[in-house]
Amino acid sequence: MRKAKALLFEMGRSGRRGYSLPDNDVPEKSLDQLLPQKMQRNEPLGMPELSEVEVIRHYTELSTRNFGVDTGFYPLGSCTMKYNPKVNEEVAALPGFAQLHPCQPEETAQGALELYYNMEQCLKELTGMERFTMQPSAGAHGELTGLMVIQAYHRHRGDHHRNKVLVPVTAHGTNPATVTMAGYEVVQVPADERGNVDLEALKEAVDETTSALMLTNPSTLGLFEEEILDMARVVHEAGGLLYYDGANMNAIMGYTRPGDMGFDVVHLNIHKTLSTPHGGGGPGSGPVGVKERLTPYLPVPLVEKKGDQFYFNYDLPESIGKVQSFYGNFGVVVKAYNYLRMMGAEGLKQVSTDAVINSNYLASLLQKHYYIPYDRIRKHEFVVSPKTQAKKGAGAGDIAKALLDRGFHPPTVYFPLIVDEALMTEPNETESKETLDAYARAMEEIARIIDENAEEIASGPHNTVVGRLDEVRAARNPILRWQKE
């Protein structure tokens, strides 16, 4: 096991400095003039004293331990951890974009407004929606925004009794939490024997209290809903709406659109589908699109065009209001727009083609050693169930740690919940055949070791900086800050 690195607090020595500031030419104020007595420390902060080179080496070394799409294969299911082309970063860093201020007059930011306007046209074509807002700052934020729009629509019509949202067991993991946060009641819809939403169960669940069906298609099983048009008809006939979670759009671009399936609202995770950075605390972006009848309820403002001028339109009296300061995370939208323009319609379709091919190819390799439920052609992802291996003493969580030992980030673990010992795996289109083969060999090796000596896998990881943690203790008694002994 690799040796754990000393903390900065442990490395500090009195008298060391990593900076040199010019003399202060502003009259100094006493601490009492700057802060009320009750806000002042009773003892020094105790920050470590370090040289510049110590700090640089410390953080550079730590960065080599971080796992990301630039350092290795990242098959995190339902998250589409694809490579982010660096040209997107260069475009977003152009002075005309990077140095804008959100409060400057519209006439001085015409380029940015034009980009927003053009981005909306692209997303409308991609999804089959009529209008888009770029305000939401992440996918889950887009979910909440979309449900608020649906809620406003029903209330404006006087349908205050519609207080339930149907959520299939194969939906994206954030959906039930978002439904609850929006003030709705979650109604779970089971899956049938083929992994689809059970249409008969859906018919029984739908009634006059149904506000919407919240659906991920393809589902977290990586399966396309074969009866999606019938599902849309059932919900619409009951007066409900359809919400599309765009987490898995990477599988269907250029082949079909949520709007053509019958969905009324869609959010896109452009960090998943359109190649902007994913994770790390943001910023993210989760644009929300709607059909025409829901446009009046979108957040304000919307970007409009009159002649050759672009402007913000705040004249939406039925709007749900703002959901983010200003108009969303502009730099992230710039990166996604650049990706869209680089790829074009045929390029985006090829993305989905390659993602589906990679998924089915990798599934065919792993199926030799692990159980994969629902024997159908998958889309962009699939679920492995090492339930046989779990009976021998090493399950999904143990296999995930064994993958870390072998230099791979593990798939999503124990989700979706309807599959025992689930490993949800998404290879995405940016991975080569050689990478997929290497991953399959690692999984084959892990299966073989479990057959021979499951404890070797169950006691891992063995080659990481930190070994196996007491996960229960960490959850119940977390230590969130360093304390001097």
Shape: globular
Instruction: Describe the largest sheet.
Output: 7 strands, mixed
- Beta-strand content: 5-15%
**Which percent range fits the helix content?**
25-40%
Instruction: Please identify the top-level CATH class of the largest domain.
Output: Alpha Beta
CATH overall fold name of the largest domain: Aspartate Aminotransferase, domain 2
**Which structural class is indicated by helix and strand composition?**
alpha/beta
User: What does the radius of gyration come to?
Assistant: 26 Å
Unreliable segments of 5+ consecutive residues: none
Q: Terminal Cα separation, in Å?
A: 25 Å
Q: What's the order of the H and E elements?
A: HHHHHHEHEHEHEHEHEHEEEHEHHEEHH
Beta strand count: 12
Describe the structure.
With 485 residues, this protein is an alpha/beta fold. The protein folds into two domains: 258 residues, Aspartate Aminotransferase, domain 2, CATH 3.40.640.10; 129 residues, Alpha-Beta Complex (Aspartate Aminotransferase, domain 1). 38% of the residues lie in helices and 11% in strands. It is built from 17 helices and twelve strands. Helix 11 links the parallel strand 5 and strand 6. Helix 6 runs parallel beside helix 13 and helix 7 crosses helix 8. The mean pLDDT is 94.
Short summary:
The protein is an alpha/beta fold and 485 residues long. The protein has helices spanning 8-11, 31-34, 52-63, 86-92, 95-98, 110-127, 139-156, 175-181, 199-205, 228-237, 258-261, 270-273, 330-366, 387-392, 396-405, 433-458, 471-476; strands spanning 131-133, 164-168, 185-189, 210-216, 241-246, 265-268, 288-290, 302-306, 309-313, 382-384, 412-413, 423-425.
